[in-house]
């Protein structure tokens, strides 16, 4: 009799737990938004975080973010699917998320990619062409061979300009500076600022060189640009469009919907962003369905 009572109690306990389990499954499958996409932005990874490196996180923190996305019903899509959604009438699943990295650091190859592959997710990296070709920067950058290997595994690489990722002098004393993509820079050799035509020629040459590199080295057919420092103006965007670039990534936060060629991104690649904080940030974009 006692054994039968124990079995009965266990069965009743299991039945009592079923609604909670079902509720958890429903919560994970919840549609937070549809016909929109959130783009997350990351930069560098290292085994230790530092207050002086606000754009560097550990592989463990990245893993906590990916687990948060997976556990809460977010669907990571490729940047190419996102491009087609934004500009070509393509579709995206509910709760669509795109993962992007800027600058082309070597840590994307050695530290980020293994974590991404563990969760079955892909990401895009906006690389600085000169940092790859010269590889003389303080922080190591990926080689073309490393990018080729990752591209075969489903990762993507696009432009962060060839060599316009710096603040240039805008006057003789250098007391005014600005992103080289946006401004007519001061040249001591010529004793003044570039002319408008010189500025256009410099920027167009850089953007076209980078697109040529990406096509020749990686076989790219899509063309996208992450603005250095997230800054842009009408002229820089016009020159990029003339280079064939169709989609432009900023650092302005927000959610994206089809028909816009300017992409908003949420900065997730900071030590201040825990998995719980990321979820809170994403849930702010929930919409009634």
Low-confidence stretches: 6-28
CATH architectural name of the largest domain: Alpha-Beta Barrel
| Structural class estimated from helices and strands | alpha/beta
Overall tally of domains: 2
At the first level of CATH, what is the class of the largest domain? Alpha Beta
Instruction: Tell me the name of the CATH homologous superfamily of the largest domain.
Output: Glycoside hydrolase/deacetylase
List the helices and strands in order.
HEEEHEHEHEHHEEEEEHEHEEEH
Helices and strands in order:
Elements: H1 2-28, E1 37-42, E2 44-45, E3 56-57, H2 59-71, E4 75-76, H3 79-87, E5 96-103, H4 107-118, E6 124-127, H5 129-134, H6 144-152, E7 156-159, E8 167-169, E9 177-179, E10 186-187, E11 192-193, H7 196-218, E12 224-226, H8 234-242, E13 247-249, E14 262-263, E15 266-267, H9 275-283
Parallel strand pairs: 1-5, 1-15, 2-3, 4-5, 5-6, 6-7, 12-13, 13-14
Antiparallel strand pairs: 8-9, 10-11
Can you describe what's shown?
There is one protein chain. This protein is an alpha/beta fold. The chain has two domains: 1-30; 32-283, TIM Barrel. Helix content is 40%, strand content 17%. The chain has nine helices and 15 strands. It has helices at residues 2-28, 59-71, 79-87, 107-118, 129-134, 144-152, 196-218, 234-242, 275-283; strands at residues 37-42, 44-45, 56-57, 75-76, 96-103, 124-127, 156-159, 167-169, 177-179, 186-187, 192-193, 224-226, 247-249, 262-263, 266-267. The strands form five sheets. Strands 1, 4, 5, 6, 7 and 15 form a six-stranded parallel beta sheet that branches. Strands 12-13-14 form a three-stranded parallel beta sheet, covered by helices on one side. Helix 2 (59-71) crosses helix 9 and helix 7 (196-218) packs across helix 8. The termini are far apart. The model is unreliable at 6-28 (pLDDT under 50).
């Amino acid at each position: 009799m006692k054994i039968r009572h124990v079995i009965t109690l266990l069965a009743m306990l299991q039945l009592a737990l079923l609604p909670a389990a079902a509720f958890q499954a429903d919560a994970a499958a919840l549609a937070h938004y549809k016909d929109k996409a959130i783009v997350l932005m990351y930069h560098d990874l290292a085994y230790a975080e530092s207050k002086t490196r606000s754009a560097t996180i550990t592989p463990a923190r990245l893993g906590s973010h990916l687990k948060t996305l997976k556990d809460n019903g977010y669907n990571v899509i490729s940047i190419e699917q996102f491009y087609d959604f934004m500009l070509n009438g393509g579709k995206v699943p509910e709760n669509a998320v795109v993962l992007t990295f800027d600058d082309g650091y070597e840590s994307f190859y050695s530290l980020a990619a293994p974590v991404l592959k563990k969760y079955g997710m892909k990401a895009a990296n906006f690389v600085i062409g000169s940092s790859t070709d010269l590889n003389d920067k303080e922080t190591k950058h990926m080689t073309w061979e490393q990018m080729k290997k990752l591209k075969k595994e489903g990762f993507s690489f696009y432009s962060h300009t060839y060599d316009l990722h710096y603040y240039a002098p805008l006057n003789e004393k250098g007391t005014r500076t600005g992103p080289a993509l946006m401004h007519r820079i001061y040249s001591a050799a010529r004793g003044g600022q570039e002319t408008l035509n010189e500025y256009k020629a410099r920027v167009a040459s850089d953007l076209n060189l980078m697109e040529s590199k990406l096509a020749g080295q990686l076989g790219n057919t899509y063309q996208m640009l992450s603005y250095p420092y997230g800054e842009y103006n009408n002229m820089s965007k016009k020159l990029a469009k003339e280079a064939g670039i169709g989609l432009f990534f900023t650092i302005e936060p927000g959610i994206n919907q089809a028909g816009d060629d300017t992409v908003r991104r949420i900065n997730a690649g900071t030590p201040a962003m825990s998995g719980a904080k990321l979820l809170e940030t994403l849930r702010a974009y929930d919409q009634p369905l």
